[in-house]
Request: fold
Amino acid sequence: MSSRGVRSLEQLPADVRDALPDPEPTPPPAGFSVRVARPFIADGAKERVAKAIEDGLVSSATSVVEELEEELCRVYGVPFAKACSSGYSALVLALRLANIGEGQDVLVPSLTMVAVLNAVLGVKATPVFVDCESGELNPSVEKYAEKLTRNTAALIVTHTYGVPADCVALQNFCRSRNIVFIEDIAEAIGTECCEKLVGTFGDFACASLYANKAITAGDGGFVLSTRKDEVMKERADSYANHGFTKRYHFVHLEGCGNHKMSGLQAALVTPAVSQLPKVMDDRNRIAKRYRSELQSIPHLTPMPINKWGKDTPWVFGVLGDSKETRKRLRQALADEGYETRDYFLPLHLQPLYRTSAGPTVSLPNSEDMGRRGFYLPTFFGMTEEIIEGICKCLIETYKDFM
Ligand SMILES: Cc1ncc(COP(=O)(O)O)c(C=O)c1O
Reply:
């Protein structure tokens, strides 16, 4: 058995067992009628995919992928973009491009998706978990500062659920300490902070293009960089493709995986990039409606609002007043056919990471969010009737048990 991770939940220390979420609600016999997410297929996407097929431009080594990278550079106003196979791949590539590896610490928010932890462990760096600010979904600069070590080489921020962290303060913090600033924008593609897109504050940004994200390639991802670096493209192309180099085809100097995006995936997502403002307007409409409908429930706290720009959450999250309340509300919604998801179980409590030896760190704000939070269906084109139905179910259920 490896030094990290446990084989069964019973082996976990008591604090982790206590934090574990309840099993997922039972779906209705006919299945969920409203899923938690639905893919956004942009105008023009079908035609572009059909054209890629007609032209035989289906692999990663095609102009279709380059066109996506050019479009990302244009929309984000950055000099470098690399399309890849997933958000996880984007994180690994960014960490490698930033030369992060063994013996170095990476500050990681605990309230996020496991891919962030896996990528840091994947490059053999050491994750140092950071708590979110009280009542917030992201760590503040102060929370990161508390966890600085002599070996801190990089800081990752995840703009959790599409609510931006304090990008300007974090940028200044990283610059003044010579720390690489990596923005994981998987949940915040199109989100703005101080009139700039998030992903343009860091040295690197990483995104997932999985089907539940604001825009999608089915699966996929991309890395952006604000750095002007002549050899970055060559290095990224090699890291994403088994370490092949242009000079000697079958000579591999470094161990690398396969992180490539296909031409078909690129064709599907490219038109969506310029349609992001439309997607964000719709997220704003959905959030406004949820906020206004749910304000009559005293013990249900809606997710924090963007303090530096338009309120465009990736998913609409709420906090119940206890874990038990969350369980009851999620089951009531499931009974009516609405799919929901718990907030993340914080990374520092993940069974994959913890030994059975006992607690490693206590991050009370993330633990509290992870225990009480869940999110509601949120997707482009969601009708007002669906939002009303969800809110009505929450209000009625609350009445029943308060
Ligand atoms: C913050 C964050 N990073 C990374 C990922 C991983 O993306 P993928 O599933 O494309 O590897 C996700 C996925 O939801 C995410 O939310």
